Amino acid sequence: MTMAQWACQTMGLGPTTHAESAIPQGAAPGWDKAPSLPDLFGTHPATSELWLVEAKGSRRLGMGPRIKGAQQLDVGALVPVAHQKVLCGTSLERRLFMMIDVEGDPPAGDPSNTSDEERLQQDDEALLELARSRMLTYLALSSLPRDGLRVTAVGRPEEAAATRRAPIRLLESDGPTAELRRHVAPDSRDADIRQRHGLDMLTGRIPGTDLMLGMSRRLYGACRELAYAERRVIARVREERPMYMDELPRGVQRQENAVAQWPERQMSDRVREERAAAAQEYARRVRAEQLDDQLRSVREGFTMGDSGSWMHLIDLTPRLALPSEEGFLEAATSDTYLAVEEEALDLDTDVE
């Protein structure tokens, strides 16, 4: 699914959401009870059209899984509004490659449509969708040891390159980033990067992987406030439906300065799934009722992060890092960052 999301973003699609964790706008009742759904859905900013995305992958992807994926995209009356279907197949042998099938050509869109940046500044729902799609990155960064956090300099995209169809930049060939890093001293801080109108991305290496993730101050601030808002959702569920708490994911049940005790109970898998589904459904209802609170909180976090510093957000001024000098290949949007060790991408090595 990670490869599928990356591929769709290169086609201009905005943030995606797991289809089993939410209901797309315009979907008919019964979406959350369907036995088979696509993996992801999202809204294309250029056309405001719903995209349904199915991701299939295997060591050697054949026609069978792709046919099954096409069937999962055939949602019928569950989505009565206009939508685009995208089937992404990822295969590992002999090289990593993708096959992408799109049902028809997506509309080109009106050039006068607002850009992604303008949508984030003007549309609170678009900002909330972005924050939700990046919560795992935020949680990963916020849980890393503080001495493992760094800031890296990323140049702001040139106006001609900041289009809806090319949001991801490969930094080893990015002119603004190269120019910015030529003028940033090794002992620079985030304020020095901002003074040169650059993006100071907070980054951290994910333990046990070859990956480094990061995000902008404004997106980190938005995600942090969304995390607080989600805690308020769970607090209300705990107050109104205490019997549901045993069925919610254990990660949201931890009490302050204590760990809840879990009674030993015997129940069938079917009963357990039904109770968990009921708990999640009630949490979704509470979340929908608190939508205005989440929209307001995320916008405030976005604005505060944009105008503040990392000291304001994490009580720390991280040291500067240049991952390209450490053997990493880098990519970034205006708000997200990803780097992978170059040696991990040696696809020319024969595997016996």
Tell me what you see in this structure.
The protein is an alpha+beta fold. The chain has helices at residues 2-10, 63-73, 116-122, 124-133, 135-143, 175-182, 190-195, 217-240, 269-289, 291-307, 310-314, and strands spanning 16-18, 40-44, 49-58, 83-91, 97-102, 150-154, 169-170, 199-205, 211-215, 319-320, 328-332, 336-341. Strands 7-11-12-9-8-6-10 form a seven-stranded mixed beta sheet. A five-stranded mixed beta sheet has the order 1-2-3-4-5, sandwiched between helices. The longest helix is centred in the middle third of the chain and has 24 residues, at 217-240. Mean pLDDT is 81; it is low at 105-113, 162-166 and 251-262.
Which features does this protein show?
alpha+beta, 352 residues, seven-stranded mixed beta sheet, globular, single chain, five-stranded mixed beta sheet
Question: What's this, in brief?
Answer:
The protein contains 11 helices and 12 strands. The chain has 352 residues and is α+β, with helices and mostly antiparallel strands.
Task: Draw up the topology in text.
Layout: H1 2-10, E1 16-18, E2 40-44, E3 49-58, H2 63-73, E4 83-91, E5 97-102, H3 116-122, H4 124-133, H5 135-143, E6 150-154, E7 169-170, H6 175-182, H7 190-195, E8 199-205, E9 211-215, H8 217-240, H9 269-289, H10 291-307, H11 310-314, E10 319-320, E11 328-332, E12 336-341
Parallel strand pairs: 3-4, 6-10
Antiparallel strand pairs: 1-2, 2-3, 4-5, 6-8, 7-11, 8-9, 9-12, 11-12
